[in-house]
Amino acid sequence: MSARLTLLRSFCAGAMMVTAAQVMTSASAHAWGESVSPSCDNRRFLEDQRRFENEERHSRNADLPEHVCGRVIAVSRARRTRSGWHGYFYVDVGSGISIRIVSDLDRMEAPQWPWVAKGDDVDVVGRYYFDNLRSQGIDWTHHGTSRNWPIAGYVTVNGHRYE
Q1: What pTM value is reported for the model?
Q2: Which of 8, 26, 68, 87 keeps 20 to 30 A from 138, CA to CA?
Q3: Which first-to-last residue range defines the signal peptide (predicted)?
Q4: How far apart are CA 138 and CA 99, in angstroms?
């Protein structure tokens, strides 16, 4: 009897932890989802980037949801990282600023890389990360989400959307 009770208590505790995690993820997704513009907002991105560069947000170690658009100025070859195959390209977001876009090729529903070319018009939703001036970009540009990033991203190239 006590073994069954212990098992039941363990099950209930596990179920409560899953439910709490789901609630936290949904609350975070809702809060972040409201902060992602439904249309391109390069001005907001440039302001967020300026804040990171001026170290106003480093203490939070926060990544930010962004929706940017612009013209592709360079495309790099696909590379294998510890989390799989990734494609990289750079977008001019205005004011003489370009940003690196990272696409997880294993998770995106897209043709073989490169499916973007120099001169293409793109619209990107993803997570802006800033490690330092030389290591920053927008990733999580695919449809997947996780406990740490609940926003589904995408890349639209000349009107064709890849998730």
Answers
A1: 0.74
A2: 26
A3: 1-31
A4: 7
Q: What is the pLDDT along the chain (163 residues), one digit of tens a residue?
A: 444 444 444 444 444 333 333 333 333 433 444 478 889 999 999 998 988 888 755 555 578 899 999 999 999 999 999 989 999 999 999 989 999 999 999 988 889 999 999 999 999 999 998 887 788 999 988 877 777 777 889 999 999 999 8
| DSSP-assigned beta bridge partners for residue 99 | 91
Count structural domains, the chain.
1
What count of other Cβ atoms lies within 10 Å of the Cβ of residue 123? Answer: 18
CATH of the domain at 66: 2.40.50.140
Residues 80 and 78: their CA atoms lie apart, in Å, by: 7
Tokens for 69, please give them.
Answer: 């658009």
Residue 148 lies in a domain: yes
Residue 128, classed as helix, strand or coil, is strand
Instruction: Please state the φ and ψ torsions of residue 132, each to the nearest 5 degrees.
Output: -170, 180
Residue numbers of the domain that contains 110? 42-162
Classify residue 158: in a domain, yes or no. Answer: yes
Q: Evaluate whether 124 touches 112 at the Cβ level (below 8 Å).
A: no
